[in-house]
Amino acid sequence: MAAFNYAGYWYAQGNRDERGIIEMKARSLFEMDNLTKSGRIEMAKLESFELTKRYVKDGKAMTRLLADCMTKQNGSADFVAERDRLWERASPPV
Prior knowledge:
Blueprint: H1 2-12, H2 18-38, H3 41-55, H4 59-74, H5 77-90
Helix pairs in contact: 1-2, 1-4, 2-5
């Protein structure tokens, strides 16, 4: 969750890559949904805060973490099955 939030923040800076922002929101929603279902959401918030503190000044490490998390999600049948719905939820209203 921390890696996707971090990436979403950077996509929102500078050239405001709207597709990147939506993708990171969608990926974060997938993680939050799963954490909520498992009852681990509060622990994940703490872990996310700690990861962000640890990596905030090390963009290369956070980028590697992001790539690892995206690879794991992309290999998840649940994520692939929910992808379109997640992107829809993450998109701004029309």
